[in-house]
Structure formats: structure tokens, C-alpha cells
Design a protein that fits this description.
Number of helices: 7
Helix content: 55-70%
CATH class: Mainly Alpha
Distance between the termini: 18 Å
CATH architecture: Up-down Bundle
Oligomer: single chain
Shape: globular
Radius of gyration: 16 Å
Order of helices and strands: HHHHHEEHH
């Protein structure tokens, strides 16, 4: 049986966001245990010119909800990017997961050739549904989740590969 656009997108994105929630939960517990101000982690960066943890979470969330909306041909909800605490970031991720769960396979499957245009600072980028999913969404999504993981790991949160991978089904 061939894999569908739905199977390759929304369940994968939901799993990644769920794993990110667990990673943030470990960071929150670590901060509490070590009596570290949580903003030390939420505002941490890997390098001075990289975005902080909160922005990594925003972008992972926006990439996931944008994927579902664009593939289904609907408008994505706008989030205000105001979350600063672990609890707020967790709630944003849950809101994104809940949004993704509103879609079904019939809305996503068959969208391989849908024309998708992203408005970027450098100008528009044109995709087909398939090139958007596999060439932009998934690499971008995993880049930001990996960067969030790396920021926390670099700052002493005890995380391992299985925290990133989550439960394999």
C-alpha cells in the first residue's frame, strides 16, 4: 500500500509536537529541581545570531499548522507569538496539536500537485503540495525541534535520543 500525503504529514507533525512537549516538560522540571529561573532556558540560544528557544517552538508550531492548512486549502489560524513560559509554550503546542487533529485524510490526500506559494522575506517561493511537504515543511519542522532540543541539552537539561524520538509505534 502506498503512503499517503496525510500519513506523511499530520501524524508525523503531531508526534513531533508531542515529543517537543515532553522535552519542554523535562526542561521545566529541571529548572524547578535546580532552582534555575525558567527564562534562562526559554530565552537561551545556541549562538548569538540564532533564535531563542521560544522562537524555535513558535516556528515548529507555525510550520505544522501552516502545513495542514495549505495542503487542505484553508486559512491557518494566527497565533500571536506571545508565549514566554513553559506552561504557555506547552499550551501553544497543545493548541496546534488540537488544530491538526481537526483534519482528516480526505482533506490532505491527493494534494500532491496543489500549488502552494509561500511569501518569504526574499520573495515568494512556489511549491507543489508534495515538494512543499517533503522539501520545506518536514526539514524546517525537524530543524526547529532539533534546535529546541539542542538548546536545552546544551544548557544542562538531561535529555537523550529517546526523548527526541518519543515512543516508537
Amino acid at each position: 500500500m502506498p503512503i499517503s500525503m496525510y500519513q506523511a504529514s499530520l501524524p508525523v507533525l503531531i508526534r513531533g509536537l508531542t515529543n517537543l512537549q515532553a522535552i519542554l516538560g523535562k526542561a521545566q522540571a529541571h529548572a524547578a529541581e535546580k532552582q534555575i529561573d525558567p527564562s534562562v532556558f526559554t530565552q537561551a540560544r545556541l549562538a548569538p545570531d540564532m533564535l531563542p528557544l521560544v522562537r524555535q517552538v513558535y516556528i515548529a508550531s507555525d510550520t505544522a499548522k501552516g502545513c495542514a492548512a495549505r495542503l487542505a486549502g484553508v486559512e491557518a489560524p494566527k497565533f500571536d507569538d506571545v508565549e514566554q513560559t513553559f506552561d504557555e509554550l506547552h499550551a501553544r503546542l497543545q493548541k496546534t496539536i488540537d488544530y491538526l487533529k481537526e483534519f482528516n485524510a480526505q482533506q490532505i490526500d491527493g494534494q500532491e500537485e496543489r500549488q502552494i506559494t509561500l511569501k518569504m522575506r526574499t520573495g515568494p517561493i512556489e511549491f507543489t503540495g508534495m515538494s512543499y511537504l517533503f522539501g520545506f515543511v518536514l526539514p524546517n519542522f525537524y530543524f526547529h525541534i532539533t534546535t529546541a532540543y539542542d538548546i536545552l541539552r546544551h544548557n544542562g537539561v538531561e535529555l537523550g535520543k529517546l526523548d527526541y524520538l518519543g515512543t516508537v509505534k
